[in-house]
């Protein structure tokens, strides 16, 4: 039994005594204890792939920030690696794929990953975290949306435009669908295994949603996200976060996903109209946490007021930035917990 289940109740659409709160990327570089641990290792991937250490980092913000959930420390790019496309994490540059998907032969070589065999280190980290949390808060599992995973697999690295990946959608749509199908099947099995390993709720991150036009987003992203949501929704609540894709809220309103995450440029009031009955999550501008404590408090209260009228999980509109003062994050969390609006 969970001692604090307020986030799960909000995710299910129930009325709660206060607004639950957590932060995307809360387990990471804002915390000195994370930086100390990371400094002893060869790099990011060693931390992700060492279950006991990933569990330790997952729990750190629960202790330090008093958030209402833990999110497993991992990366969305473990999925393409499990499928046979290895990535490197280059300091100050980000992910890099030495090989990319260019052809039908490349897609054919990729496997549909077996979660226990190819992603067992994530599942073991979940099991350790679940045991060590001992019911304090729920544990969030996650995966990248198929479109965002395809974007990295085709482009090979981060990009402002992802023009190579987007070109595939125009020039070789059938090939894109073949790749998206393999990613989707892998992701469903992976998230189901995360639930079996202890995840109480799962989130699908579509980090590069906003670079697609709406028609392409519906065809190459929403359809696959909805398949994943439908497969997971009977097990746990599902959250979808499609950064920049404000037009997709109406489509997600009809999906099995229970919670819709909003970025800081989206209107909570408009989203309430587009998705009545859904739980909304978000959406403080991460840069608001650079202000003074009083400014952080005021910005948080203004954000909370915008979400009035329905279930809400407080969060940022994207991940917390690594140079954010942890004391300001605590102000954000405390302000949410004290809110009586």
Automatic annotation (TrEMBL):
Pathway: Porphyrin-containing compound metabolism; protoporphyrin-IX biosynthesis; coproporphyrinogen-III from 5-aminolevulinate: step 4/4
Main location: cytoplasm
GO biological process: protoporphyrinogen IX biosynthetic process
GO molecular function terms listed in the Swiss-Prot or TrEMBL record: uroporphyrinogen decarboxylase activity
Annotated site residue numbers, Transition state stabilizer: 75
Keyword Zinc assigned: no
The enzyme's E.C. designation: 4.1.1.37
Gene3D superfamilies: 3.20.20.210
Enzyme class: lyase
Catalyzed chemical reaction(s): uroporphyrinogen III + 4 H(+) = coproporphyrinogen III + 4 CO2
Domain Uroporphyrinogen decarboxylase (URO-D) intervals: 20-29, 140-156
Similarity-based family: Belongs to the uroporphyrinogen decarboxylase family.
Quaternary structure and interacting proteins, as annotated: Homodimer.
Entry protein name: Uroporphyrinogen decarboxylase
Organism: Hymenobacter setariae
